[in-house]
Amino acid sequence: MSEKNVRLGIIGLGAQGGTYAGLVDEGRVPGMSLGAIADTDPAKRELAAQKFPDAPFYDDHLAMLDSGDVDAIVTTVPHFLHPEMTIDAIGKGVHALTEKPAGVYTSQVEAMNTFAAEHPETTFAIMFNQRTNPVYTDLKALIDSGELGALRHTSWIITTWWRPQGYYDQSEWRATWGGEGGGVLVNQAPHQLDLWQWLCGTPKKVFAKLAFGFQREIATEDEVNALVDFGDGVTGHFMTSTNDIIGTDRLEMLFDKGKVVVDGSKKVTIHRLTQDERALSDSMSMQDVAKLFRGEADQSSVFTVEEKDYESVWGKQHLDVLTNFAAHINDGTDLIADGAEGINGVRLASGMQLSAWTGREIDLVDFPAEEYLAELNARIQEEGKFPTRS
């Protein structure tokens, strides 16, 4: 094990920043220590002094970056600021772990990615902690092995994000176009948007229906229904909302040689076909089919079923990403998620919004970034609370 030490700077001592600071300060991240904290809120200075008395506090992140107190930072700040602060850090030779989402609109994320690529000596990672979840790492390995063949279609219903009106009333920036840049797609669902593409591939087109302020007094989307086109006839459906108090989390993926269903991000059911589905279709007579459906045939001659149950340990996935980030800096360990991959989720979320705003299918390969930003700025201007973006 390396004895090297990465001094982490926390930019933004909110709920998430405080969690990361605590994990590092308690010595739970090998090869990493708490270097400093930066926050523009004066009240956070006192909080930091109480909880992390040994960590220098700065009211400006640039001052912290120039202080020599930190080797790396994590950006636990509003979404719009992620690219800007990541560029500031990398430009000063400080490693950067960007929180999700990578940004709000693609042009700012592309600028961040381009800048990071010009400084390969500085680590650029993103907090896609769900990529460490054994449910999905095992599934990724199975899909990549080719055992199930090619993807045919997929659907993810993820409505376990119920948020009461009081949640949105806590802060003026929540669920606003100018303060947050969107609703459920940019706040609650980025992990699923990333995982979906990590497992299934990057969609080429999207058509979506979104409801804005549907069941909550907010400006942004609180319900989403989207159809995506992966190319070669492969399609997908994504549904999410913040107004379902019961909630569903169900991912389905159909392949040429099987089917995978994930319920609650905990139970995985894998059906493996004995042959490619088309081969079974061509080889079975209607009498064979009738026997199968009546339960008179040996089911195992067509498919086998495997069920797996997983347990989730709260906080471990964030800890795994922090540990991996430190290990990459110290020893060159491969990153769980390269920061450049964050643009995929931003592009898909923006594509869903733009499709709903314009009523047309959106090309994700040649994404109309300028049109999206113009539409976003029109909504920011209408709110009249925040500056427009460029």
From TrEMBL:
The keyword NAD applies. The keyword Aminoacyl-tRNA synthetase does not apply. Residues 137-260 form the GFO/IDH/MocA-like oxidoreductase domain. Residues 7-121 form the Gfo/Idh/MocA-like oxidoreductase N-terminal domain. Transmembrane segments: none annotated. Gene3D superfamilies: Dihydrodipicolinate Reductase, domain 2, NAD(P)-binding Rossmann-like Domain. InterPro entries: Gfo/Idh/MocA-like_OxRdtase_N, Gfo/Idh/MocA_Oxidoreductase, GFO_IDH_MocA-like_dom, NAD(P)-bd_dom_sf. It holds the Pfam family GFO_IDH_MocA_C3. This is Predicted dehydrogenase. It comes from Brachybacterium faecium (strain ATCC 43885 / DSM 4810 / JCM 11609 / LMG 19847 / NBRC 14762 / NCIMB 9860 / 6-10).
